[in-house]
Amino acid sequence: MNGYRFLRRRKTRSRFTGMATAGVILGVVMSTISPGLAHADRVVNGIAIYGSIETEYQQLIDIGRSAGNPVDIEKGDRAGGRYQDFQSNNHIYWNSRVDQNRGRQIGGAIFDKWGNYDWEVGDLGYPIERETDVTRNGKLNRFEGGVVYWSPSTGAHPVWGQVLETWAASGYEQSAYGFPVADEENYGDGKRQLFENGQYIEWHPEGFAEDWAGNEEYNAISETQCGTCGDDGRLAETDTLHVYSTLFNRGAPQEDQWSEEEREQDLAPCAEALAAASQDPDAVIMCDTIVDPAAMPEPANTPSETTTPTTTLAPQESTTAPTSVTESSDSSTTTTPTTTTNTPAAEPTTEQATTTTKTTTTTTTTTTSPETESGTDFFAPKRTVAPAKPQCDQLGGNTWGGTRMYSCIETTHLTEIFQTTSPPKILGTVTWAETRSVNANWKQTDYSEDYLIRIISTTGKGSGAKFAGTRSCRASTVCTQTGTRTFSNKPATSGSTIIAGTTGNAFTPGGGTATSDAKWTISISHPEAIAPSSVSNGYTPPLRCDAAAFMRGYRGCAFTGVKGFLDYSRLPNLGTFNNHVNLAQDSGLTSELHRITDPVLIGDNRKATCGKVTGPRTAGRSCDEYPFASTDEGGRNGGYPRTFATVCEYKDTGLNTLAVPVTETHNGGFSVCSINSGENSRAGSYLSWFYVKNRILVNDAFVVNAN
Q: Which ranges in 553-619 belong to alpha helices (H)?
């Protein structure tokens, strides 16, 4: 029987359904009898007993529990079966779906109670076992839909559905519950039944209210109380940022990615520069390549901060660059720059590097403060810009990584200035790094990007290079930008920093969703070069902005290429909850879940999990289910139902109890466990805030960790 049951009003039954001739009855009944039965049909006091009913009649005699003489002939019932009445309120019922070859005896107070529920067409169905003795002089009949127990002190009462599963797993009448003393009754949206010890077994179709307190329809934790409770757990670690497999392409702002051909084309400006200089064998050109920062040599500890180029160089000419480069007799070697005293000087401070008069072996140049933009020193940040989060350092360079709310990349470049002689002669280099930190906003449809260029070092004519940049954005609706979106004519001064902060808005008023991304295009020029080197490291991972109704009234944006990471292990006061999730995952249940919001599906998940666990709940405890009811992997999908010995306290014949520590795994299904109700409520609220603060929409994936 399932959990839904409605008590039927007792009906007055006419049990006579028509008289048949003995030959017809014999023909009908005998057709169901298996060959080789020990006893033939018989006539007692002038009334015939046939076939499967006679088989049960004889077996009762054999065990000393005779049904007595028949008081009427065999008749058909309302469900396609047959029955016959005997002395002392004894009866034998037969139906082929129970047993082709034998009927089942039922009698006395149990038969009368069965009649209260409309006999064979009621919820109990047919008897599947004859009346049996139980402890304390009690009696029992099992039916298709439950059991009816009787004792001298309690009378006869049916037990079925989820109440029966709990009572059976506890030990039936020999358990602490004892015999039932009343029939099941309506109670709220569910049912309950009273037993001898004064304790009810109670059932509700979706579990008890305390099981779901804290879920998103409850506000057990306010936004102020939540603080960082719903944040992606990756930022608590230094090495757990999601790493995007490739850079994102230049097509529509969706989940598309660069092909290798597009990447090589966009990141190979040297070929374009060489083509531009093909008609001039002495042209000065520039090209930029992305390099592995781990393979870059450390800058020399000299005033000019010049590094030795990684390529074998032709002799370099000194220009107006603020570094000293001398031509060596060995044409493949660049000498270490020196001051006029020809002795190493202490490394200058940033201020010294940009204001001190420097003397070289060929010319003396005064380096002034950087050019200004709108009357403001560009290198003095126009607003405070936080550096990239330390987790970005773990990405290995040149790779996007992040969370649902944050993405970053740090790319190291080597820009070379060379003359197209044969062989080409390198005139100078600029080693620089660009860092992009993009912050989505879970409660607004604005997102912000901090863009930073750091000049690591220059050699030769590299100090004469100038940087310019332009930011562009795309959106499936309207893309707007505010803040610094361009800069120009910024000198390549070693140790200097170029900072730009931009806020982009990708949302269209009126609801729905929109996607957006953005990129910076950097141009590095030199007064002697015939053309600048143009560099673009691609678009940001795409953001999705939404106005979903189930986000506590907030509109916001998130990076959709990242699975959310819900790390319960770092949230406070969740000991019994985390223990259950760990056991559930150790036993084979998935850690990757997908959100649903359909209340019907959520209700079905609840009915299939904690809705199968009767109560009342132990004081201070409630039922926890995994996977969560608000996920597509929830219990409505069926599979292997489980709970855990010693820690979960549930006894139910519909659950498989696994040992702790877990020694076996079963894919699919669900787990239920009795845990601290306060922890259950907090965990549900944390889940709700996690959905909101990571913009987890329908079918979005996220990963649960509780270890």
A: 575-586, 599-608
Residue 171, burial from CB neighbour count under 10 angstroms (0-12, 13-18, 19+): exposed
Neighbours of 22 (CB within 10 A): 13
Q: Highest mean pLDDT: which of 212-216, 290-294, 302-306?
A: 290-294
DSSP letters along 233-272, please?
GGGGSSS--EE-SS-B-SSSSSS-B--HHHHHHHT-HHHH
- Structure tokens that stand for 135 in this block: 């402890």
In terms of Cα–Cα distance, which of 138, 212, 214 is closest to 181? 138
Q: List C-alpha distances in Å: 658 to 460, 587, 611.
A: 72, 8, 20
Of residues 243, 277, 246, the one with CA closest to residue 261: 246
Q: With a cut of 70, say whether residue 311 has pLDDT above it.
A: no
What whole-number distance in Å separates Cα of residue 403 and Cα of residue 420?
45
Count the helices and strands in the chain (H runs, E runs): 12, 38
**What pLDDT does residue 219 have?**
57
Alpha carbon distance 306, 324 (integer Å): 9
Instruction: Measure the N-to-C terminal CA separation of the chain; round to a whole number of Å.
Output: 38
For residue 391, what pLDDT is reported? Answer: 67
Q: Report residue 534's pLDDT band, with 50, 70 and 90 as the boundaries.
A: confident
Check: CB of residue 324 under 8 Å from CB of residue 361.
yes
Do the beta carbons of residue 190 and residue 205 sit within 8 Å?
Answer: yes
Residue 345's pLDDT band, with cuts at 50, 70 and 90, is: very low
Residue 76, beta-bridge partner list? 82
User: Which phi and psi (to 5°) does residue 695 adopt?
Assistant: 50, 55
Question: Hey, what are 681's tokens?
Answer: 């409520």
- What does DSSP assign to residue 300? P
Q: Which residues, at least 6 apart from 271, have a Cβ–Cβ distance to it below 8 Å?
A: none
Could you say which DSSP state residue 461 is in? G
Q: b vs e for 515-532, b when ≥16 Cβ sit within 10 Å of the residue's Cβ?
A: bbbbbbebbbbbebbebb
pLDDT of residue 353: 31
The per-residue DSSP string of 389-449 comes to PGGGGGG-SS--EE-SSEEEEEEEEEEEEEE-SSS-EEEEEEEEEEEEEEE--TTSSEEEE
Region 621-638: mean pLDDT is 96
Q: How far is CA 592 from the centre of its chain?
A: 5
Q: Is 262 exposed, middle or buried (0-12, 13-18, 19+ CB in 10 A)?
A: middle
Half-sphere exposure of 263 (CA within 13 A, CB side): 9
127-176: pLDDT as tens digits: 999 999 999 999 999 999 999 999 999 999 999 999 999 999 889 999 99
DSSP H helices, 645-676, are none
Q: What is the mean pLDDT of residues 634-651?
A: 94
CB 54 within 8 A of CB 101: no
pLDDT in tens, 20-44: 322 223 333 333 433 334 444 799 9
**pLDDT value of position 93:** 98
Q: Which pLDDT does position 309 carry in this prediction?
A: 34
Q: State the amino acid at position 209 in one-letter form.
A: A
Place of tokens 């006395």: 108
Question: Which is it for strands 564-567 and 701-705: parallel, antiparallel or unpaired?
Answer: parallel
Q: Could you tell me the two tokens for 619?
A: 């004081």
CA 555, CA 697: separation in Å to the nearest integer?
12
pLDDT for 245 equals 52
Cα separation of 516 and 559, whole Å? Answer: 10
pLDDT of residue 116: 97
Residue 583, sorted as left (phi over 0), alpha (psi -120 to 50) or beta, turns out to be: alpha
Whole-angstrom distance, CA of residue 399 vs CA of residue 392: 9
